[in-house]
Amino acid sequence: MATAAETLSGAMAPRPFRVVRRQRETGDTWTLELEPVNGEPLDFVPGQFTMLYAFGVGEVPISICGERGGPLVHTVRAVGAVSEAICASRPGAVLGVRGPFGRGWPVEEALGLDVVVVAGGIGLPPLRPALYECLRRRSEYGDVVLLYGSRTPADLVYRREVEAWRSRFDLEVDVTVDRGEGDWRGKVGVVPKLIGSARFDPGAAVAMVCGPEIMMRFAAEALLARGVPEDRIYLSMERNMQCGLGHCGHCQLGPTLICRDGPIYRFDEIEPLMKVREL
Amino acid sequence: MIGPEALDDLVAALKGRGFRVLGPTVRDGAIVYDDLESAGELPIGWTDRQEPGSYRLDRRDDEARFGYAVGPHSWKQFLFPARISFWQARRVDEGGFEVREPPPEGAPFAFIGVRSCELHGIAIQDRVFLEGRHVDRDYEARRRDAFLVAVNCFEPGGTCFCVSMGTGPKAEAGYDLALTEILDGEHRFLVQVGSERGAEVLRDLPRRDAETLDLQAAGAAVEGAAARMGRSLDTTDLRDLLARNLEHERWDEVASRCLTCGNCTMVCPTCFCTSIEDHTSLAGDEAERVRLWDSCYSVDHSYIHGGSVRPSGRSRYRQWLTHKFGTWHDQFGTSGCIGCGRCITWCPVGIDVTEELAAIRATEEVSDAND
Hints:
The complex is a heterodimer. Chain A is an alpha/beta fold. Chain A has 2 domains: 4-101, Beta Barrel (Elongation Factor Tu (Ef-tu), domain 3), CATH 2.40.30; 114-274, Nucleotide-binding domain of ferredoxin-NADP reductase (FNR) module (Rossmann fold), CATH 3.40.50. Helix content of chain A is 22%, strand content 30%. Chain A contains 7 helices and 15 strands. Chain A has helices at 4-9, 81-87, 124-136, 159-166, 213-226, 258-261, 267-274; strands at 15-26, 29-36, 49-54, 58-63, 72-77, 94-101, 114-120, 144-150, 172-177, 187-188, 205-210, 233-236, 252-253, 256-257, 264-266. In chain A, the strands form 3 sheets. In chain A, strands 10-9-8-7-11-12-15 form a 7-stranded mixed beta sheet, sandwiched between helices. A 6-stranded antiparallel beta sheet of chain A has the order 4-3-6-1-2-5. Residues 1-9 of chain A have low confidence and may be disordered. In chain B, strand 5 (83-91) and strand 6 form a beta hairpin. The relative contact order of chain B is 0.16. Chain B has 2 domains: 6-84 and 106-227, no CATH class; 238-271 and 298-370, no CATH class. At the A-B interface, strand 14 of A face strand 5, strand 6, strand 11, strand 12 and strand 13 of B.
């Protein structure tokens, strides 16, 4: 049931948040840090998303990519009118925020286990809060592995941070690109290929996967092949989302509503649905 | 028991209590739901003939007030209007903006002539909008004080199948007052009370106590309706049947007839999909968010960057039918269908959901072999 506060204020009204920092990630992707104009910062669990509103243009679902307790961070790729307007918002601009919505990554369930984070392209930002959580409580997890791939070196987001993570002794980081353009001397190939040689115990690991649906399917297959049980593999699904409340009907994926039951699903829950074309 | 003339007193009693009284009336060749000034505006002496893709009004040879099944309208157009404005916003200093949410306004509704299936339809929308994690504020405000006068069916339509869905024809719960129209002998109505408010309104009407004969006549009228359903549907394991048959060849066959016009979703009393639209003034200093009925038959319904998830008519018809009869159970713990038959009647090419579901059931093994 909704709380009285939700009912009274109306879950459809965005709260104004001011852009305090804006950083370019790639040619079409920007990271924004936001602070509430009034009131409390947004609390969230890793994997949740907000509905982010550009005044007069519209609203889109965007994963929360920052650390709990810090500013609200969103990494946005400009792919349409709304995301373009959001990416163009300079410090001082005000955006609207509703949420957070959705079910997050299994950071609690993974306590005591190895954690394998598999990200494709713009799939890394939704996973970053989970990674932050693992690093914050590092001693409570086993091996932590980040496997990250993008189409080209220029499409890698958070590049400096990934490089800094790679210098840590308590985190294994492996990066690959589909096409090794320019002066790239790292690995070339698709990200699921990194799974076979990564250091983790398949029988005692939780995998968190985010990226294009096709990449997630191959990553899940590679994880299963390594012996990770299907109920320890988690994926983040994407559909059209307009309300975030389970009311508008757009984000249906078979028996589930992604904004309410997702966006993070256990692989064994979602696998039969992923096989059906145009579901 | 009340007489037909007491329906005028009922309208007056509800108006006197500040309700906006809505009920069935004849307009443009159909029985629609609209404001009632008096009970004289009810479809007196009219009935409807319904078949797949066909709806016609006919004269009855009596003065029945509720001698029809259901028309193209449902009560959802009042509780869940086709267009509402959520809020308006305007620019303020330093790049900011201010959001104003107008409170939902207007008199509470009194609906006269709510069919049993429609009571179930309202209960299903209650589940979607009121009983989940989030409450729909606008729906809640419209629904909260609505006064429901149910009418038991004695004249089911050619596309009705409420008996199969377990949603009628007799109103069992969820009403303030329930009427059973009796045409056998003296024209009269059995009134059943479903709430304190209902009892209080009934006290304003000229009435007499019901006798055994009245109760028998009312029971016979409803039983007669149950026996004359135009359609029937085997609902055994329907949810699982559909989940097993997402690649059935029948989807291709029905897609070759379906126009993906979305009529079925517009007339369906439970369909709840909406699109959220953000508008702005030409000067760019004012903005508004509106909610409009949407339909899963539109290509845009499933659009994400890069394209639509369901570009084919086959996948969109499958989405609608499997949601209504199958995955609705998973999402909201109930079927999404109330057996009112509107989607069959108002389909321009006469697609009959009961026939489609029966076809899938009958040929399931063929599909398995082809998988």
